[in-house]
Automatic annotation (TrEMBL):
Source species taxonomy: Bacteria, Pseudomonadati, Pseudomonadota, Gammaproteobacteria, Cellvibrionales
UniProt xrefs under PANTHER family: GLUTAMATE RACEMASE
Gene: murI
Name of this protein: Glutamate racemase
Organism: Zhongshania marina
Cited function: Provides the (R)-glutamate required for cell wall biosynthesis.
GO BP field: cell wall organization; peptidoglycan biosynthetic process; regulation of cell shape
InterPro entries documented for this protein: Asp/Glu/hydantoin_racemase, Asp/Glu_race, Asp/Glu_racemase_AS_1, Asp/Glu_racemase_AS_2, Glu_race
Active-site annotation: C78, C192
Length: 270
């Protein structure tokens, strides 16, 4: 008997609903792949953690998760955590690990005015790695940094409780346009995986800007790694699963469950 061949499974790990934006990009490029979205709601927000504690927490959480749910590749879908935790994860896991970094390079390539907004968490704005990306790929650009403590929590609240978010978006607009060269800005980097989930309302509020995130680049990287692993992607008649597991003590709300179902995702037990 020929053994049954299974489609590869990608584990997408984030502190909350940010995994949804990365997962959507991966699913669009690789619809045959099974996706497991891990939302560490109990650890949210990662930007408030001390770095060594965050590394220990994520390594323990990922290890425990992989004991229950096997995966062929891990995507660390968080800008705040990626640079800190990737070395430890790669040392401790037997599967490939893909991280997320701010899309500063493509933004610098696509901006005509060379005035670029960088919308991120305060932790990502402050990291030396972000400064290095700017130095390496956008040294000829004026970067307008906005480190928001409120936008990612507001997005979590929107998905969990359907709380209104208009006032927060207006606040983001005011912060972006407070810079002396803001009138020249033509591009904004969404440097937190939560933020692309609000790209449409952000674009509606600020229609003259191009919004760039890391989703497509991460999806291409995942495809490259899967091909390197020689994992099957052309399985005739197979239906890919897209499942969500929530870490933490707080149970998913009916609003969140319905929203996930509307996206074609199903909630499974941890």
């Amino acid at each position: 008997m020929i053994p049954k061949v299974h489609a590869p499974r990608v584990l997408i790990f984030d502190s909350g609903v940010g995994s949804l934006s990365i997962g959507a990009a991966i699913h669009q490029l690789i619809p045959q792949a099974n996706l497991l979205y891990a939302m560490d709601h109990g650890g949210f927000p990662y930007g408030e953690w001390q770095e060594s504690a965050l590394v220990e927490h994520i390594c323990q959480a990922v290890s425990a998760l992989l004991q229950r749910h096997s995966a062929d590749i891990l995507v660390m879908a968080c800008n705040s955590a990626s640079t800190a935790v990737l070395p430890a994860l790669r040392n401790s896991l037997s599967i490939p690990v893909v991280g997320v970094v701010p899309a500063i390079k493509p933004a610098a390539q696509r901006s005509h005015s060379k005035v670029i907004g960088l919308l991120a968490t305060p932790g990502t704005i402050a990291r030396a790695y972000t400064a290095q990306l700017i130095n390496d790929f956008a040294s000829d650009c004026c970067i307008i940094p906005v480190g928001s403590r409120v936008l990612a929590p507001a997005i979590e609240s929107l998905f969990w409780q359907e709380n209104p978010i208009d006032a927060v978006l207006e606040q983001i607009k005011a912060e972006l346009y407070s810079h002396p060269r803001a009138a020249e800005m033509d591009t904004v980097v969404l440097a937190c995986t939560h933020f692309p989930l609000l790209q449409k309302p952000l674009a509606d509020l600020m229609p003259n800007l191009e919004w760039i995130d890391s989703g497509e680049a991460i999806a291409r990287r995942v495809l490259h790694v899967l091909n390197e692993l020689n994992l099957p992607l052309n399985l005739n008649g197979s239906t890919a699963k897209r499942e969500v597991v929530i870490l933490g003590e707080e149970p998913a709300t009916p609003i969140l469950i319905q929203g996930l179902e509307n996206m074609g995702l199903s909630l499974i037990d941890y």
